[in-house]
Amino acid sequence: MKKDVPAMLCSVFIDRLEGDGTWDGMPKREKELHVQAFKDAHEAVFGRAGAHVVEAAKAMCEAIGIAHEIVTGPGRSVGQIRARRVLSYALREFLPATPSFPEIASATGRTNHSSVINSWQAARVMVAEQDPVFMAMLEKCKQAVQVEVAA
Questions:
Q1: For the segment 88-131, what is each residue's pLDDT rounded down to a tens digit?
Q2: Which pTM value belongs to this model?
Q3: What CATH superfamily classification does 51-150 receive?
């Protein structure tokens, strides 16, 4: 079984427990305990993003000329969205050990892995279309990771 499937299931349960409507009959404190239990279990199995994923993300940000803090921030400018798409695709495709979507979410400052999945899917479309700006950014990320691995 791929590592992402259990991670996605944990995230779905957490989202449902935190959200409105699915678990309405459950007392608030009990709901909070369940959410924390799922979060603890998720972190125990998958951990936070490994240092290698965060370092690779920082190296890629430097290579494409955008501060890691800007990418991990809450903004939604075109540049930030494009950079997040590049990172979500590059981290998944270019690292020797493929990180999970939750690990990438943690390394890129996203609160949920689903935003990383959406970015990665949009990036796949841009790769298929051979978007020249996007492809140039990906190439810089690939080179940055190769330098990091060699060092």
A1: 999 999 988 888 888 898 888 888 889 999 999 999 999 999 99
A2: 0.66
A3: DnaA protein, C-terminal DNA-binding domain (1.10.1750.10)
Three-state SS sequence of the chain: CCCHHHHHHHHHHHHHHHCCCCCCCCCHHHHHHHHHHHHHHHHHHHCCCCHHHHHHHHHHHHHHCCCHHHHHCCCCCHHHHHHHHHHHHHHHHHCCCCCCHHHHHHHCCCCCHHHHHHHHHHHHHHHHCCCHHHHHHHHHHHHHHHHHHHC
Query: Where are the chain's structural domains?
Result: 4-46, 51-150
